[in-house]
Design goal:
Blueprint lengths: L2 H13 L2 E5 L9 H13 L4 E4 L4 H11 L6 E4 L2 E4 L1 H10 L1 H11 L1
Parallel strand pairs: 1-2
Antiparallel strand pairs: 1-3, 3-4
Helix pairs in contact: 1-3, 2-4
C-alpha cells in the first residue's frame, strides 16, 4: 500500500464516526455481506458513511492491508476496526453493537 492510499484510508476512518468499506453503496449494496452491514446499521438508525471498493481498486486492496483483514465489508467505529458482516451480526444479536455505536456517537 502506498503512503497516499494509507493517508486516504486514515482520513476516511478518522473523519467518520462509522465508516464502512463495502461492495456497492448503502443505497445499492453489491453483495449480501455488505447488505447485511447496511441493514444492521440502518436498523440502529445511526449515521454512517460508505466507500465503494468496487470503484477504487487501490482502496479495495489497501483496506485489506490496512486492517490485516482479508474480506470486505470492513466496519470502523470511532477510528477502530470492528470487523466484517459476521462480527457485526454477532455484536448486534448480543446487544453490544448498539452500545458501541452510542458511545462512539456521544464522543
Amino acid at each position: 500500500m502506498t503512503p497516499e492510499i494509507k493517508e486516504r484510508i486514515d482520513n476516511l476512518v478518522q473523519q467518520n464516526k462509522i465508516m464502512v468499506f463495502m461492495k456497492g453503496t448503502k443505497l445499492m449494496p453489491q453483495c449480501g455481506f455488505s447488505n447485511n452491514v447496511v441493514q444492521i446499521l440502518s436498523t440502529l438508525g445511526v449515521p454512517f458513511e460508505t466507500v465503494d471498493v468496487l470503484e477504487d481498486p487501490d482502496i479495495r486492496q489497501g483496506i485489506k492491508e490496512y486492517s490485516n483483514w482479508p474480506t470486505i465489508p470492513q466496519v470502523y467505529i470511532n477510528g477502530q476496526f470492528v470487523g466484517g458482516s459476521d462480527i457485526l451480526i454477532e455484536m448486534y444479536n448480543k446487544g453490544e453493537l448498539q452500545q458501541t455505536v452510542e458511545v462512539a456517537l456521544a464522543s
